[in-house]
Design a protein that fits this description.
- The complex is a heterodimer of chains A (556) and B (177).
- Chain A has helices at 2-16, 31-44, 56-99, 107-119, 201-209, 304-311, 390-393, 424-435, 460-471, 481-493, and strands at residues 122-133, 138-149, 154-160, 167-170, 174-179, 184-189, 213-222, 225-233, 240-245, 251-255, 262-274, 291-294, 299-301, 326-333, 338-345, 349-357, 369-373, 376-381, 405-411, 414-420, 439-440, 454-455, 509-514, 518-523, 530-536, 548-554.
- Chain A has 556 residues and is an alpha+beta fold.
- Chain A folds into five domains: 2-44, no CATH class; 63-99; 107-274, Clam (outer membrane lipoprotein receptor (LolB), chain A); 299-440, Phosphorylase Kinase, domain 1 (2-Layer Sandwich); 454-554, no CATH class.
- Chain A has a twelve-stranded mixed β-sheet.
- Residues 74-105 of chain A have low confidence and may be disordered.
- In chain B, 69% of the residues lie in helices and 5% in strands.
- In chain B, strand 1 (2-4) and strand 2 (7-9) form a beta hairpin.
- Chain B is mostly helical.
- The chains are: A alpha+beta (556), B mainly alpha (177).
- At the A-B interface, helix 1, helix 2, helix 3 and helix 10 of A face helix 1, helix 2, helix 3, helix 5 and helix 6 of B.
Chain lengths: 556, 177
């Protein structure tokens, strides 16, 4: 409730400041909040609009002319650029031919990186992000100073670009950010941490280890260091290149493919290795004249009894802890009456159990896999993509943190969630011990078990193009089967296109099956000509894959 | 540029200036009415002109009911930006734009909506109405509103939340949407 109240107030403040509220670009708000935002806009429409300042017509004409001329020049330079790439590709192909015989994997280099990182305690570097356009013009977007260690602690200070002056620190117990413009220090939970920093070396090596394919392209000098250039093809993603320092065996630079005429290069302009991060950098202190803003709403307690007194119920504990885990701490979020018990193994893998009295009907996120915990419907997210509903809503910011998964369910009048930076199997072990019953996580079947009455023809090439769009950050709704079904049913009802609101509400759809690859969405509307929509992830079968309608059952 | 009773054809670079100068204001007002902030209204107005003029140049097209056409394109741009797009909605397909549809939201409907919102506001209790008037219609901050109403800031936020919940219900029950 508190979060909603504040969010609505912030929304009004943004409009009053004549700025675009972040919610206008957000992939999904709860229907309740969307309604309230719309009501704000309607009330506000009683005011006269605030008109642009200065000569808007002149600025507009200049911007339109400039955009159109850029479009023309991009088209005319496309061919030249293509030849440039073709030449580079030919050169790369020669190098590859020289280096490879048959399908190429590079176990030696990957292993060397992994072993070298094992020897490192911490590192310190200057990291820069450079953006390059199709004409080859480059600008430095940001430059930051980074200190990081293998246990996930870090100190990052912005030197140039939008992060200039910002200092972000995670000492393993808490995270804080010093914001000089606002003269504030904001405090957050250390775990989960939705943002660390780009090109964190440990994560990069993990990505290379998990890649579908790696191959050596050649040698180059970067920032005065001799490097090996490697192409990495991740599971279901576009290939990218990394430059590995020949001497230290550490990645120094990473470059994306040119996508939508933009290419990003992230590089350590300087880097050196040490045993640990200097203590002073990880010590919290409030600079003079700064205000402390505590976003960490957890109240740590020393016993279950204390938690019971604050939350009003006796928290449930796992019957047995999975191998190697120990209870780390207990916290209570007093306003939402949520008890959070934290477990850890080797200080790196962390699992938390959330519990509270169930106050609303259980509604799993439409983006989640549906399973069972002790016979109850369970929402399974790996990683968490949506924590707008239920107990996860009160627990912190998890969505978008790629290594955090969760299992959420209701049982005997309580709602539970188990989440952590561990495998689903580990979470399932916790859920089993907590619920006292079996956990079922559906495995995608090779063949669909339920056939639609009407099949919808699919053009896979179009779907691949859509997937590329979504990978570039467009149309995120295509990752949500309920949204895709909503659009499909709406277009069936209004074949000429949708004007204004969708004829079918998002709330009128429910996911009845979702194994992560196939989903069935049921439509609860008397006006809909369709009863069920069948969807599949045809291009990529993980959480980044788009959903495509493959069939439906008519209402009659 | 030739213009006959709202039908427009682009002829030469100079007419871009003319087109922007003659038609930006009604479009901007329309977009502002939808998004309720200047920053976004300026951006969407600009994007709408770029898409429309680029289309006119590519197809050497004459556009009937130009302002309605712009309004429909702007609605698609808003939907595109707010991530509620139709299935192939990454690129606004201007061949499919039906200016008649945008004309549905004409002036008389706007007037009707204003009356309906004012009517809904009158059904709030006095505190709720004052809070909404200060915060949204006069654009005061929470702190200023709290001072004027003799309440603390937390109270004001909760009051405005409840007032908007109630307004939303009243508006829905009016069944205009």
């Amino acid at each position: 409730m508190d979060r909603k109240v504040r969010k609505l107030s912030d929304y009004i403040d943004q409009l009053n400041a004549e700025r675009r509220p972040v919610e206008h670009g957000s992939s999904k708000e709860s229907p309740e909040m969307e309604e309230l935002f719309e009501t704000v806009r309607m009330v506000r429409s009683l005011r006269e609009p605030v008109m642009p300042e200065g000569d808007f017509a002149g600025r507009l004409a200049a911007a339109v002319s400039s955009s159109l001329s850029r479009e023309r020049s991009r088209k005319s330079s496309k061919k030249k650029w293509f030849y440039g790439i073709a030449t580079a590709a030919a050169a790369a192909a020669l190098i590859i031919a020289f280096n490879t015989v048959g399908p190429f994997v590079e176990p030696n280099m990957v292993q060397a990186m992994d072993q070298a990182f094992q020897q490192v305690g911490a590192y310190h570097g200057i990291l820069e992000v450079v953006e390059t356009n199709a004409e080859g013009e480059s600008i430095t977007q940001t430059k930051v100073e980074v200190w990081a260690d293998k246990d996930g602690r870090y100190y990052v200070k912005g030197l140039e670009g939008w992060q200039k002056g910002l200092v972000t620190v995670n000492d393993g117990e808490k995270k804080w950010q010093i914001q000089p413009d606002e003269k504030e220090v904001e405090l957050f939970s250390a775990f989960p941490d939705p943002y660390s920093f780009t090109f964190e070396i440990g994560k990069e090596i993990e990505n290379v280890k998990n890649a579908v394919r790696t191959r050596i392209l050649g040698n180059e000098t970067v920032a005065g260091r001799e490097t090996v250039v490697m192409e990495v093809t991740p599971q279901g993603g576009s290939p990218y290149k990394i430059w590995i320092d020949k001497e230290t065996k550490m990645p120094l630079q990473k470059q994306s493919e040119m996508d939508y005429a933009i290419q990003y290069t992230v590089r350590y302009a300087e880097i050196n290795f040490s045993k640990s991060i200097p203590d002073g950098l990880l010590a919290f202190s409030l600079p003079e004249g700064y205000k402390k803003v505590d976003n960490n709403l957890e109240h740590f307690v020393s016993s279950l009894e204390e938690a019971r007194d604050l939350a009003g119920f006796v928290p449930r504990l796992p019957e047995e802890l999975p191998d190697g885990y120990v209870q780390d701490s207990i916290a209570v979020m007093e306003k939402s009456k949520i008890v959070k018990i934290n477990y850890t193994v080797k200080n790196k893998e962390k699992v938390s159990v959330l519990q509270k009295e169930a106050t609303e009907n259980f509604k799993p996120s439409s983006m989640a896999i549906l399973g069972k915990v002790n016979g109850n419907t369970a929402e399974i997210q790996s990683p968490i993509q949506n924590n707008e509903a239920g107990i996860l809503q009160g627990g912190g910011v998890y969505a978008g943190v790629t290594d955090i998964s969760s299992i959420r369910w209701q049982q005997d009048g309580f709602e539970y969630a188990v989440f952590g930076n561990v495998s689903l199997d580990n979470l399932a072990a916790f859920a089993e011990e907590l619920s006292g019953g079996p956990v079922e996580i559906p495995e995608p079947e090779k063949e669909a078990q339920n056939e639609p009455q009407v099949k919808v023809p699919v053009d896979l090439e179009i779907e691949k193009a859509e997937q590329k769009n979504v990978d570039a950050g467009h149309s995120p709704w295509m990752l949500d089967p309920a949204f895709v079904a909503q659009v499909f049913v709406s277009l069936e009802m209004s074949p000429g296109g949708i004007q204004g609101d969708y004829p079918i509400d998002y709330e009128e759809l429910s996911i009845i099956e979702n194994d992560g690859v196939r989903a069935i969405v049921e439509v609860h509307s008397d006006e809909s000509p369709i009863k069920r929509v069948y969807l599949e992830r045809l291009v990529r079968q993980d959480e980044t894959g788009i959903w495509t309608v493959v069939g439906y059952d008519p209402a009659n | 540029m030739t213009e006959v009773e709202g039908n427009i054809k682009l002829e030469g670079e100079k007419s871009i200036e003319e087109l922007c100068s003659n038609h930006w204001e009604p479009l901007y007002r329309y977009v502002y009415y939808k998004v309720q902030n200047r920053e976004e209204a300026e951006d969407i107005t600009q994007e709408t002109f770029i898409k429309t003029i680029s289309y006119m140049q590519r197809h050497n097209a004459r556009i009937e009911q130009f302002e309605s056409f712009l309004r429909t394109v702007s609605l698609n741009v808003i939907r595109d930006r707010w991530r509620k797009r139709n299935r192939r909605g990454n690129v606004v397909n201007l061949d499919d734009v039906n200016p008649g549809m945008a004309a549905i939201e004409d002036h008389s409907e706007g007037t009707l909506q204003r009356e309906m919102i004012q009517n809904a506001l009158s059904k709030l209790n006095e505190d709720q109405r004052t809070c909404i008037e200060l915060r949204i219609l006069k654009g005061y901050s929470v702190a200023e509103t709290a001072r004027q109403m003799g309440r603390n800031e937390g109270n004001v936020r909760v009051l405005q939340f409840r007032a908007l919940q109630r307004l939303s219900k009243i508006i829905k029950s009016e069944d205009i949407y």
